[in-house]
Amino acid sequence: MTGGQPSAAFNRLINICKGLGVEEEHIRIIKPLHNKHEENVKVMQEELEYRGVSVIIPQRECVQTLNKRMRAKFKEKK
């Protein structure tokens, strides 16, 4: 999802995956950021090696909503 649009799955993806039978230890959340690259690659390698169902959920704030929030915060400080 991009642009901050609403989603029926918001804050529910983990429970949806559990409900589908994915083991909790194989539901992984990663932050797709440059400074997390090595950690993310490690998580992906671990889950690719796992011989079962796993889910990797990349999750971070939308760049557009982040920019809006930061601009508003900057204006408040002025």
Per-chain topology:
Layout: H1 13-19, E1 27-30, H2 37-49, E2 55-58, H3 63-77
Walk me through the structure:
By secondary structure, the chain is mainly alpha-helical. The chain is built from three helices and two strands. The protein has a two-stranded parallel sheet with strand order 1-2. The chain is flat, with a radius of gyration of 16 Å. The mean pLDDT is 90.
Distance between the termini: 32 Å
Number of helices: 3
* Element-by-element helix/strand order: HEHEH
The residue-averaged pLDDT reads 90
User: What's the number of extended β-strand segments?
Assistant: 2
Strands of the widest sheet, in order across it, are 1-2
Helix content: 40-55%
Q: Runs with pLDDT <50, length 5+?
A: none
The largest sheet is: 2 strands, parallel
Oligomer state of the chains in this structure: single chain
Estimated radius of gyration: 16 Å
Q: Give the percentage of residues in beta strands.
A: 5-15%
The shape, in one word, is flat
Structural class: mainly alpha
Short description:
The chain has 78 residues and is mainly alpha-helical.
Descriptive key words:
single chain, 78 residues, mainly alpha, two-stranded parallel ribbon, 2 strands
